[in-house]
């Protein structure tokens, strides 16, 4: 589950926020398998989609993370979850997307080297209300 500014997100929802206000992010990973999983890293990658097949990941002048954009997960036991919190700060207006990736952090290679867990989250940064 992904929450942006306290709202549950999926691929069909556009979350609106204001430039200059920190936007809280929450990612909850639930292990529905019968075995413990981990270790791996959860990485959040913001980008802009130019709608022509080009994704711009070079956004250091437009978006910053408050804290880290990578969280390390040791083990998630069966039927348990692990929740990670962070914040984004948008410096300019625009439509942005957030990829949530899980990377294997284990040499056993039980998981693919890198795999996406959820569809991209669409966030629209707007001008502050005066």
UniProtKB/TrEMBL annotation:
Signal peptide: none
Cellular component per GO, a single term: trans-Golgi network
UniProt-listed InterPro entries: Ig_TRAPPC9_Trs120_4th, Trs120_TRAPPC9
Domain Trs120/TRAPPC9 fourth Ig-like: 16-125
Pfam families attached to this UniProt entry: Ig_TRAPPC9-Trs120_4th
Record-linked PANTHER family: TRAFFICKING PROTEIN PARTICLE COMPLEX SUBUNIT 9
Protein name as annotated: TPPC9 protein
Species classification: Eukaryota, Metazoa, Chordata, Craniata, Vertebrata
Designated gene of the protein: Trappc9_0
């Amino acid at each position: 589950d992904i929450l942006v500014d306290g709202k549950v997100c999926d691929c069909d929802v556009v979350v609106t926020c204001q430039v200059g206000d920190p936007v809280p992010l929450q990612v909850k990973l639930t292990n529905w398998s019968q075995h413990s999983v981990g270790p791996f890293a959860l990485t959040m990658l913001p980008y802009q989609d130019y709608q022509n097949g080009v994704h711009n990941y070079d956004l250091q002048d437009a978006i910053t993370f408050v804290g880290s954009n990578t969280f390390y997960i040791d083990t998630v036991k069966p039927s348990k979850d692990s929740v990670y919190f962070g914040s984004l700060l948008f410096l300019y207006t625009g439509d942005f997307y957030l990829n949530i990736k899980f990377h294997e952090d284990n040499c056993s290679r039980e998981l693919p080297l890198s795999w996406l867990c959820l569809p991209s989250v669409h966030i629209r940064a707007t001008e502050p209300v005066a």
